[in-house]
Automatic annotation (TrEMBL):
It comes from Biformimicrobium ophioploci. It comes from the Bacteria. This is CaiB/BaiF CoA-transferase family protein. Transmembrane segments: none annotated. PANTHER family: ALPHA-METHYLACYL-COA RACEMASE, SUCCINYL-COA--D-CITRAMALATE COA-TRANSFERASE.
Length: 371
């Protein structure tokens, strides 16, 4: 596997850090999760199955668990010895917390110059808001994406995805892998300052037209990506379900309106977003005349970007995701999210075992005593 031989020490909690280190574990890294005496919080958050939190199962498979009280100097000294032989160190605390514990980058670099040290925080290690507490929703609100997630009533909605958490996870993973690659040439590690807000804002290039070109915020429902384009929009069907059109290329509009018996309406889709009201109104009426199942049959074989709005449970049972092994069941009947990074050579080998709190203290710590 691609990351075999890489040792990761992970002090992060909740979602961004644990998710990225799980992806590393899936591809062969030895991931040592350091938990406080109270344990990783997600052990106790949300619904449980077979005695384990589903959230914890989807972020901690294949890891080792150490339970340490880092305010205890002897236990911290044992952790430092472990980090001396690590390749990657991940933490997700507020700026300054690691320095107070004597686990800051400069201290660890002096002991292990090859260490790749990754800090993930809400706002980054510098700037006026660096010490401000925040989780995903607050970051999304502060960064404009809650505003972009506007409902049809014109009010902002709670985002469906933890986008700030997950963009930070993927940016951190990318940065860590870059640093490990560079280390093969220089022999030196590096320090990564990953901000959830930075990561989220960097994922908005398609939203920046009005901001950068006209120095204004977008009128959300008039923009191409959020309802202003007839061919990139959500429509309700006769049975109260929904479908989406998701491709605004003119050829798709021509194909759709031709089959609907109104080929002339395709020309309206040449207009800028926000000026396609006649086409939108026609499609709203048309889609409201049949059930979602009827539309699924109707669209069969038609070259148009469209999809039904599936319930989450429906989506995960779809044949395609099953064939891609993005949901799989282990020997104990637990369902897991699959591995999205699929190598032809050296594919991931998922270890679905979950560590008990402090299970590996004896293996990694000289005293073998739990915290």
């Amino acid at each position: 596997m691609k990351l075999q031989g890489i040792r990761v020490v992970d002090l992060s909690l909740f979602l961004p850090g644990p998710h990225l280190t799980m992806m590393m574990a899936d591809h062969g890294a030895e991931v040592i999760k350091v938990e406080p005496p109270s344990g990783e919080p997600t052990r106790e958050i949300g619904l449980r199955h077979n005695g384990q939190s589903v959230w914890f199962r989807n972020t901690h498979r294949g890891k080792r668990s150490l339970c340490l009280n880092l305010k205890d100097e002897s236990q911290k000294a044992q952790l430092l010895e472990l980090i001396d032989n690590a390749d990657v160190f991940v933490e997700g605390f507020r700026p300054g917390a690691m320095a107070r514990l004597g686990l800051d980058y400069e201290t660890l670099r002096a002991r292990n110059p090859r260490l790749v040290y990754c800090s993930i925080s809400a706002y980054g290690q510098t700037g006026p808001k660096c010490l401000k507490p925040a989780h995903d929703l607050s970051i999304q609100a502060d960064s404009g994406t809650v505003f972009l997630n506007e409902g049809m009533d014109g009010k902002p909605c709670s985002p469906a995805l933890p986008a700030a958490d997950m963009t930070a996870s993927l940016m951190a993973l990318s940065g860590i892998l870059m640093a490990l690659l560079r280390r093969t040439e220089t022999g030196q590690g590096d320090y990564l300052d990953i901000s959830m807000q930075d990561s989220l804002v960097a994922w908005l290039p398609n939203a920046m037209g009005p901001v950068f070109a006209e120095d204004r915020s977008p009128e959300v429902k008039q923009e191409r990506s959020w309802g202003g384009n007839a061919m990139y929009r959500i429509y309700q069907t006769a049975d109260g379900r929904y479908l989406t059109l998701g491709g605004s290329e003119l050829k798709f509009a021509q194909n759709l309106f031709a089959r609907l018996g109104q080929p002339e309406l395709a020309d309206i889709c040449r207009q800028p977003p926000g000026q396609q009201h006649e086409a939108i109104a026609f499609l709203e009426r048309a889609f409201a005349e049949r059930s979602l199942a009827e539309w699924e049959s109707w669209f069969e074989g038609l070259d148009v970007c469209w999809s039904p709005v599936r319930l989450l449970h429906e989506a995960l049972e779809d044949d395609h995701l099953q064939s891609r092994q993005m949901v799989f069941v282990d020997g104990e009947g637990n369902r897991h999210l699959g591995v999205p990074i699929k190598f032809q050579r050296e594919p991931a080998v998922v270890d679905t075992r979950l560590p008990e709190l402090g299970e590996h203290n004896a293996q990694y710590l000289s005293s073998g005593e739990p915290a």
